[in-house]
């Protein structure tokens, strides 16, 4: 399920390192089930890229503040548009809003939707087009442990408490066609 929802590049992945404030190093090797299991168990933390063909199956709004009123503002906007989403504590300094698509769409469509709801927050994917041999920007994958703070990056309920069953909420969240929402 994690691979289905989040993984878009199979040929490489970014690995968070605890040193230097939690930067990432790119491992140019296939992302295996063992890598994903290590992420989900908290022993390693991976990041996510959009696809090499400049498509994405998710949108992530990165709210880099612990100010809950700022989070609530974005959540209200997403809810007004009747878009299913998950809220994640990022593990350090804020929250991520995750929206999942029914299939991969061009990054530019995901970004257009993100700009409609993001209120100036960072939007992932960050690029409309990924140049050949480039990776684009990454976002930390959810459901793991932040390697600097050792905080778990859980999906949250409406009261901003960790969901009891992380797998179940990921299973139940509905996917959308972002083009229909933009119309």
Report on this model:
- This protein has 183 residues and is of the alpha+beta class.
- It has helices at residues 2-6, 33-41, 68-80, 107-117, 166-172, 178-182, and strands at 13-16, 24-27, 47-48, 55-63, 86-89, 95-106, 122-124, 139-140, 155-156.
- The chain has a 5-stranded antiparallel β-sheet, with helices on both faces.
- A hairpin with a 5-residue loop joins strand 5 and strand 6 (95-106).
N- to C-terminal distance: 29 Å
What amount of the residues lies in strands? 15-25%
Total DSSP helices: 6
Uncertain ranges: none
N to C succession of SSEs: HEEHEEHEEHEEEHH
Structural class: alpha+beta
Largest sheet: 5 strands, antiparallel
State the strand order across the main sheet: 7-4-6-5-9
The portion of residues assigned to helices is: 25-40%
General shape: globular
How is this structure best summarized?
This protein has 183 residues and is of the alpha+beta class.
Layout of secondary structure:
Layout: H1 2-6, E1 13-16, E2 24-27, H2 33-41, E3 47-48, E4 55-63, H3 68-80, E5 86-89, E6 95-106, H4 107-117, E7 122-124, E8 139-140, E9 155-156, H5 166-172, H6 178-182
Antiparallel strand pairs: 1-2, 3-8, 4-6, 4-7, 5-6, 5-9
Quickly list its features.
5-stranded antiparallel β-sheet, 183 residues, alpha+beta, 27% helix
């Amino acid at each position: 399920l994690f691979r289905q929802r989040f993984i878009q590049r199979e040929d490489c992945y970014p690995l968070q390192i605890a040193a230097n404030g939690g930067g990432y190093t790119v491992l140019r090797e296939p992302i295996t089930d063992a890598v994903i299991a290590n992420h989900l168990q908290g022993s390693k933390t991976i990041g996510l890229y959009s696809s090499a063909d400049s498509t994405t199956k998710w949108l992530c709004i990165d709210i880099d503040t612990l100010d809950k009123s700022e989070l609530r503002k974005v959540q209200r906007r997403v809810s007004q548009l009747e878009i299913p989403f998950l809220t994640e504590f990022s593990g350090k300094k804020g929250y991520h809003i995750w929206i999942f698509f029914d299939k991969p769409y061009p990054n530019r469509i995901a970004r257009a939707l993100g700009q409609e709801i993001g209120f100036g927050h960072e939007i992932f994917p960050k690029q409309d087009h990924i140049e050949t041999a480039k990776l684009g920007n990454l976002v930390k994958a959810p459901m793991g442990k932040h390697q600097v703070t050792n905080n778990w990056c859980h999906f949250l309920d409406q009261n901003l408490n960790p969901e009891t069953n992380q797998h179940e909420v990921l299973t139940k969240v509905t996917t959308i066609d972002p083009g229909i929402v933009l119309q």
